[in-house]
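Proteins fold reproducibly. Look at a concrete instance:
___
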Amino acid sequence: MNLVDQIGKLLNYGLFPPICRLCGNAGLPDWDLCLHCHRVLPRRPAPKLFGEGLVLAGFDYSTPIDGLIRHFKFHGQLDAGHLLARLCEPVFEDSRPMALVPVPLHLRRLRQRGFNQSLELARYWGRRRALPVLSGALVRHRETAVQSSLSAAERETNVQGAFRIEQPLPAHVALVDDVFTTGATCGAARDALLAAGVKRVDVWCLARVP
């Protein structure tokens, strides 16, 4: 960044400082988050084994991350999603997939919501890591019930066989999702990917339920 850009950035921050999305106070430079709220974010969970791969999550699913995810996912606040995606970036630094595969929504759910939150995350992380995003590779061809209303056993049955593969895939991919709860959805997606010849499937997500 040259001197003129630096001066312009400082002037802009002085006149129009970012606002913390959590408390409404002035945010840090280039962040919609203040120093206090940044310090009280929940911990980053250790990687979790996922077959031959790993589940990598930016945070435990708890306050205030859960609220930001709801604003992003159910209220279409994409700027909240971008903030979350940026906060989670460090956890993926050592992960080396060959492509990102967003967990798809069924077409009916996609029309209702207007966007796929997993695709938004994959696009952001794909740009930042120069990774291809295979948005059409994995398709949810069967509509399923909302997972949050089901028990762990019911979740497994609900998504079993719900995914199919539509295009060739590399040997190592990362599934992208917003929240990893019981692993039923990602597990069903992984089964479809492995059956199509993928050798390793990781999961990149914003948060994991402890």
Notes: The mean pLDDT is 90. The chain has two domains: 1-40, 42-208.
